[in-house]
Specification:
alpha/beta, globular, binds magnesium ion
């Protein structure tokens, strides 16, 4: 199985410069569905890999994150995109280190083991250097995009 690992904030939804944990603040990036459709038509499945350190900071709860992800998953479904799974890391360095938090790669390792993912055929799209560092730790090619960038033209360069 080949997968596109997607960072969440700044890739799927607009990076607001603050934590996004309310559905009302969750705004899908322009062109997202077209880009995901192109990738899906090329045989990729999707897994979201997101740091949610606001939980460790006490700004919001697991329940908040799960509600946002339920909303996000339904929108994927509505746009005929199959979202395989969502992994989030609730940790933050100020409250104790975790290997799941990007730039560490435990979330990716779990996903790869769980789904038998072919890392050589997969890639990760992120808007932060730490997304790329995490993916390269597990041999997955990282693609750095600008925050909130329309993904479609990038995807067209990757998939020929
Ligand atoms: Mg991001």
């Amino acid at each position: 199985m080949k997968v596109v690992f997607l960072d969440r904030d700044g890739v799927i939804n607009e990076e607001r410069g603050d934590y996004t944990w309310r559905i009302s603040d969750f705004e899908f990036v322009d062109g997202l569905w077209d880009a995901l459709t192109v990738m899906q038509d090329n045989g990729f499945k999707f897994i979201v890999i997101t740091n949610q350190g606001g939980i460790a900071k006490g700004l919001y709860s697991h329940k908040d994150v799960k509600e946002v992800h339920e909303f996000m998953s339904k929108e994927f479904e509505r746009n005929n995109i199959h979202l395989l799974d969502v992994f989030y890391s609730p940790y933050h360095d100020i409250k104790g280190k975790s290997l799941s938090r990007k730039p560490d790669s435990l979330m990716l390792e779990k996903a790869i083991a769980l789904y038998g993912i072919d890392t050589s055929e997969s890639f990760m799209i992120g808007d932060s250097e730490r997304d790329i560092i995490a993916s390269e730790k597990v041999g997955v090619k990282g693609v750095l995009v600008s925050p909130n960038q329309n993904l479609l033209e990038i995807i067209r360069k990757i998939i020929r």
